[in-house]
Amino acid sequence: MSPASLERPLTLALSKGRIFDETMPLLAAAGIQVPENPETSRKLILPTSSPNLQLIIVRATDVPTYVQYGAADFGIAGKDVLVEHAAEHPGGLYQPIDLNIARCRLCVAVPVGFDYEAAVRQGSRLRIATKYVRAAREHFARKGVYVDIIKLYGSMELAPLVGLADAIVDLVSTGSTLKANKLVAVEDIAEISSRLIVNQASLKTRASALQPLIDAFARASSQDE
């Protein structure tokens, strides 16, 4: 790592929405404020009240990539994203803290009236729509159920309604979206929360700058348990 890179601010990768919103109190606990809101700002690099820290706003699924390859020193990503990332990029990310934010469940959901238990018990081959391919495949493999995985990136609830899939594997928070589309969660796969992830090279070369922030995140997240 060059001397110039050691002088630049630390870079924290975040995605818009719930993770960004729930990260702000953690930064505030470390004495850091973010004056701009990514929902209203067009900037993708946001300064903070600390000259030693800047944020980059990227797609949730891209956060681990930016961190693993050193474009960001650290980031915050959901466990669901990290599981899928690890399938294609094993190793390379240090995950020191479960921040206990953006909590939800990864679930199997089916249309109301669909006899999921019978379908699973009879060994039927199910079509599953999801963007969480690895998690879904491993879940059904453990159950000994044959599945065809159909990868989608959004509007997952639509797939069973139009006959594309028998069931979906998706994140569920309140369940209101499922209910609105006449779907019901029938099985939990995993509890999901967001983790702090750190670039391993940055942890070695910029420890004096990074470690205080890691410690502050740890303290703030433990107070929320």
TrEMBL record:
<dbReference type="InterPro" id="IPR024893">
    <property type="entry name" value="ATP_PRibTrfase_HisG_short"/>
</dbReference>
<keyword id="KW-0328">Glycosyltransferase</keyword>
<dbReference type="InterPro" id="IPR001348">
    <property type="entry name" value="ATP_PRibTrfase_HisG"/>
</dbReference>
<dbReference type="InterPro" id="IPR018198">
    <property type="entry name" value="ATP_PRibTrfase_CS"/>
</dbReference>
<keyword id="KW-0963">Cytoplasm</keyword>
<dbReference type="Pfam" id="PF01634">
    <property type="entry name" value="HisG"/>
</dbReference>
<dbReference type="GO" id="GO:0005524">
    <property type="term" value="F:ATP binding"/>
</dbReference>
<comment type="function">
    <text>Catalyzes the condensation of ATP and 5-phosphoribose 1-diphosphate to form N'-(5'-phosphoribosyl)-ATP (PR-ATP). Has a crucial role in the pathway because the rate of histidine biosynthesis seems to be controlled primarily by regulation of HisG enzymatic activity.</text>
</comment>
<comment type="pathway">
    <text>Amino-acid biosynthesis; L-histidine biosynthesis; L-histidine from 5-phospho-alpha-D-ribose 1-diphosphate: step 1/9.</text>
</comment>
<feature type="domain" description="ATP phosphoribosyltransferase catalytic">
    <location>
        <begin position="59"/>
        <end position="216"/>
    </location>
</feature>
<comment type="similarity">
    <text>Belongs to the ATP phosphoribosyltransferase family. Short subfamily.</text>
</comment>
<dbReference type="GO" id="GO:0005737">
    <property type="term" value="C:cytoplasm"/>
</dbReference>
<dbReference type="InterPro" id="IPR013820">
    <property type="entry name" value="ATP_PRibTrfase_cat"/>
</dbReference>
<comment type="subunit">
    <text>Heteromultimer composed of HisG and HisZ subunits.</text>
</comment>
<dbReference type="GO" id="GO:0003879">
    <property type="term" value="F:ATP phosphoribosyltransferase activity"/>
</dbReference>
<dbReference type="GO" id="GO:0000105">
    <property type="term" value="P:L-histidine biosynthetic process"/>
</dbReference>
<keyword id="KW-0368">Histidine biosynthesis</keyword>
<protein>
    <recommendedName>
        <fullName>ATP phosphoribosyltransferase</fullName>
        <ecNumber>2.4.2.17</ecNumber>
    </recommendedName>
</protein>
<keyword id="KW-0547">Nucleotide-binding</keyword>
<keyword id="KW-0808">Transferase</keyword>
<keyword id="KW-0067">ATP-binding</keyword>
<keyword id="KW-0028">Amino-acid biosynthesis</keyword>
